[in-house]
Amino acid sequence: MNFQETFDTIYLGNKVGDYLLGVLFLFGGLLLRRPLSGLIVRIFIQVFRRSEYKLEYQTYRDHLKKPLNFLLFLVFLFLAVSHLEYPESWNLAPVEEFGVRKITLRIYQLLWVVAITRVVLKLVVIGGEMFMKRADQTVSKQDDQLIPFAVEVIKILIIVVALLVTASTVFKINVGSLVAGLGIGGLAIALAAKESLENLFGSFTIFFDKPFVVDDLVTVAGVTGTVIKVGFRSTRLRTLEKSYVTIPNKRMIDAELDNLTLRTFRRVKFDVGLTYGTNMDEIKSIVSEIQNYIDEHPHTNQEGNVRFMEFGSSSLNVMVLYYIDTMDWDTYLKIKEEVNYKIMEIVEKSKSDFAFPTQTIHLNQHKD
Questions:
Q1: What does the alpha-carbon distance between residue 24 and residue 146 come to, in Å, rounded to a whole number?
Q2: Beta-strand runs (E) in 209-304
Q3: What does the alpha-carbon distance between residue 174 and residue 163 come to, in Å, rounded to a whole number?
Q4: Between vectors from CA 271 to CA 265 and to CA 274, what angle results, nearest 5°?
Q5: 248 phi and psi angles, rounded to 5 deg
Q6: 139: number of Cβ within 10 Å
């Protein structure tokens, strides 16, 4: 028996050569899908080669590698099995009727929809990153906030379209009847998705009312942090402790929100406790010198107040209140440190000292 006769041998309704060709396509797909996906990525890059907002090759590659590999695998799988037939001896039902043929076809069509949807979603993400690169060059923070939100909205719309296409093409469901049927159960769905809808409307309120934008420092619901992203359902904050907090958009608009970035000054208030051995002239001198220093400091305004406030349980308390004209945390700490050092210097120069909690106990001796 020669090779031609071997290839022409019928086994389970197909020639051996057809099986070998299918195996060849499968192995070829496994070997070539990565180089081919890289080639597709390079072709895609060439489309945007003249754009100043294009991304690095590795960024495109990281986003598109897995979706393209899966899509190319389906292509080679189709090439491998499209010329093969089910054995007639199995007496399978035709593809129009429920059975192995129909189930296999539906699964394959479903995989195609999933693969194409994944590629489209990644292209949307890439487009969003390109627009973000452009937005980084603008002064306004509104576009930095709007682009991630728009990307999420587009991704949800794509998923909805993919589901409708799947229902119509793969499962042969009448989409028009399905949409009409949703009107009957719409109330139940709305009640079930009440929280999600409230968060969705909250996101629109944030965009239109603009109580904050990305990179603003806010305090809301007892959490203080920098706004990183306003999403479809929630807003993400990076706290001062560098943790990552996610707050539903409904709470962002319902709770009291303090936009710290919109402040022009940072307030500092504390008490300086002097020992009870400090006389009146020394207190007046300390108060006056601290007041003059705060008034003349280049980063504090003229609303600072230094006053001898009260007789404490173990100290004479001098209130120090002033405002620093910066929103930068490191600068704020540096200026506050400068003021503290100067207060220590003034107190030491006045021959006074800082008090600490003490108790004086008098013992009376009784003679028998």
A1: 49
A2: 217-220, 223-230, 234-239, 244-248, 257-259, 266-274
A3: 13
A4: 145
A5: -55, 145
A6: 5
CA distance 131 to 68: 23
Within 8 A by CB and 6+ apart from 104, the residues are none
CA–CA dist 138, 213 (Å, integer) = 14
Specify the residue for token string 């969003």. Answer: 128
Please choose, from the candidates 191, 43, 188, 51, the residue with its C-alpha nearest in 3D space to the C-alpha of residue 131. Answer: 51
Model pTM score: 0.59
Q: How far apart are CA 211 and CA 30, in angstroms?
A: 52
What's the pLDDT tens digit per position in 98-130?
767 778 888 888 888 999 999 999 888 888 888
Give the pair of three-digit tokens for residue 96: 């129009």
* Matching residue, tokens 């004209």: 325
Query: b/e string for 22-39 if b means 16 or more Cβ within 10 A?
Result: beebbeebeeebeebbbe
pLDDT digits (tens, 9 = 90+) for 305-320: 999 999 988 899 999 9
Tokens linked to 263? 């402040």
